[in-house]
Amino acid sequence: MKKLSRGFLETLSSIELIRLADEYGIDIPDDLSRQFIIGDLIQLGEELERSENAKESIVLSDEKAMNVDTLPKTYNETKIDTVLRNPVSLFVWWDLAESLVERVTETFGALSLAVCFFEDESGEKPCGTFDIKISLEDREQYVIIPAGKKIVRVDLVCECDGRKDTLAFSRPLPLPQTPQIVSMRPGEKLDIPPVMEISGVAAALRGHYNEYRQSFY
Fold it and tell me: pTM of the full predicted structure?
């Protein structure tokens, strides 16, 4: 497309201007003067140029976004945290420092998650725990929560040379005391409210039972 500048348009005859305006869909009355036609074409050219610049900007932004470095697999620090997935399950994620990975590998050590429950957030001694074995490659885990528990904390534990060390622990997380969940018993049909159904609680319980043939309820 030729740039619709005033210098270029002034070189065209009136017939050529009308033909060009018709090509771009500009309706030109028979009695419209030559200068008005040129003015309309210049305005159209400016609009088309702005549109093309906007498209180029979008393309450049997309290319820049595609070239952004991906997030690192590790931040080289040992930490752990949790978030409530729904009233019956947690999502736990953690990171391991390279020095720790080397130590565990060299000593043939083992890692595990200690899921600890407390009566209140200030409690020091758990009222219940269970362990989940994890590998050095793992960085996340879904955990089913026993019914009626109030506070949960997940510890990252390393066992090396016959000694267990707590490497990191999550913040204490209050658990929802949903009546339908607390009173649930194996074999009973769970009456789940529609809003809670969206969280996937029924699927989590069903999947846990189908895979492990076990219920904490």
Answer: 0.56
